[in-house]
Amino acid sequence: MSCTFRPETELVQYSPSSRRLRNRIISAPRNSPSSSRSFDNWNLIFVAACWLSISLDGSFFYILYIDDYRKCLVLAKDLTFTLVVLRTVLDSFQIVYVYIRAHTHVPVPDFINGRGFHTSKWTFAKKFFCLLNGIVSVLPLPQAVIYLVVPKMRGHKFLSAMSLLKFVLVAQFLPRFVRMYQLFTKAASSSGAVHGLASGIFHFLVYLLVSHSFGALWYFLAIVRVSVCWRQACLHAGCSSHDSFYCDDD
């Protein structure tokens, strides 16, 4: 009696009931077109929340101003608290979006028949990049700098903490802007009838956003330049290089 070994794929025999179960698992509701269309209807809300959140990033540059009477720098605590709360609330919309997107549009591996992912590697890489960019764009980095780093950076290190805040805001602007553009693209594709009008409004809002952010950054750099001039004048007058121009440091 001879024994022949068949491949593992031939050993598995699917009954009609198991085949129906396999098809039901593969075609899960989270990847169905109807759920995708219903989810795309909310994209405009997420675009508006994302635009408002990015607009608040530029306003963080206005939390520092000059006290002309005492000739020192003041941190506007009320404005800072308001911006932190508003950005956290608006970013929570993006966190919900990232969570829903991860559970509805990430390719599902088909481990039952061993064929791997239903989509190509390039499509999966694109979806993974969008998901990673969404996570990076909602990280509370400015909030962490303001409430964890700035209180510990006293004296001459205060301006270093503010420079760190500037770097964080500028570095996070690009992924947040890319995220907003991705959301707008999805929203515009789901409503093709108003694509031209929506595109015009979006580009106008982008112009306002960039203008506001650039003006706020210019204001912050002007404040830093004034403090540098103060330090140079103070050094010529015999002051210590570790003296602070932050009003709360007396």
From TrEMBL:
GO terms for cellular component: membrane. The chain crosses the membrane at residues 42-66, 78-100, 131-150, 162-181, 201-221. GO terms for biological process: monoatomic ion transmembrane transport. One of its GO terms (molecular function) is cAMP binding. It comes from the Eukaryota. Keywords: Ion channel, Ion transport, Membrane, Transmembrane, Transmembrane helix, Transport. PANTHER family: CYCLIC NUCLEOTIDE-GATED ION CHANNEL 1 (PTHR45651:SF5), CYCLIC NUCLEOTIDE-GATED ION CHANNEL 15-RELATED-RELATED (PTHR45651). This is Ion transport domain-containing protein. It comes from Citrus sinensis (Sweet orange).
